[in-house]
């Protein structure tokens, strides 16, 4: 039980911080939304399972990220997640969009500068 509480607290704190720093009236896709869409990807990204339903989440997240601010928010969250979660294989994370048939103009990596690559999504 204690092993579940800590990650939930981290997600809650991150969601509160994301909401607090977002300008009012500007819709953004927050941390919790990204995590929800990509929950099924964790086993694949940590070599503990197959790709499974992961691509459904990747494609769904791609579809809802319509504005530049949404794309920057998703990019920043992905950057944070792959850099902070232990056991994530960076090569698998970077290749995830291609694996799922989604073309994004940046590499999912802890070193990505999201401000440079998110203005135009390539379909």
UniProtKB/TrEMBL annotation:
Gene Ontology biological process terms from the UniProt entry: lipid transport
Molecular function GO labels: lipid binding
Signal peptide stretch: 1-27
Keywords, comma-separated and alphabetical: Lipid-binding, Signal, Transport
Stretches assigned to the Bifunctional inhibitor/plant lipid transfer protein/seed storage helical domain: 34-114
UniProt superkingdom: Eukaryota
Listed InterPro entries: Bifun_inhib/LTP/seed_sf, Bifunc_inhib/LTP/seed_store, Plant_nsLTP
Family annotation (SMART domains): AAI
Function comment: Plant non-specific lipid-transfer proteins transfer phospholipids as well as galactolipids across membranes. May play a role in wax or cutin deposition in the cell walls of expanding epidermal cells and certain secretory tissues.
Sequence similarity: Belongs to the plant LTP family.
Name recorded for this polypeptide: Non-specific lipid-transfer protein
Organism name: Sesamum indicum (Oriental sesame)
Species classification: Eukaryota, Viridiplantae, Streptophyta, Embryophyta, Tracheophyta
């Amino acid at each position: 039980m204690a092993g579940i509480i800590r990650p939930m607290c981290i997600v809650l704190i991150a969601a509160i911080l994301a909401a607090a720093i977002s300008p009012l009236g500007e819709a953004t896709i927050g941390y919790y939304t990204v995590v929800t869409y990509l929950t099924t990807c964790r086993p694949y990204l940590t070599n503990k399972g197959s790709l499974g339903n992961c691509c459904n989440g990747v494609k769904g997240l791609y579809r809802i990220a319509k504005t530049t601010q949404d794309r920057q928010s998703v990019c920043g969250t992905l950057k944070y997640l792959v850099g902070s979660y232990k056991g994530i294989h960076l090569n698998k994370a970077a290749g995830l969009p291609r694996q799922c048939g989604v073309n994004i103009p940046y590499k999912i990596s802890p070193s990505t500068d999201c401000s440079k690559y998110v203005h135009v999504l390539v379909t």
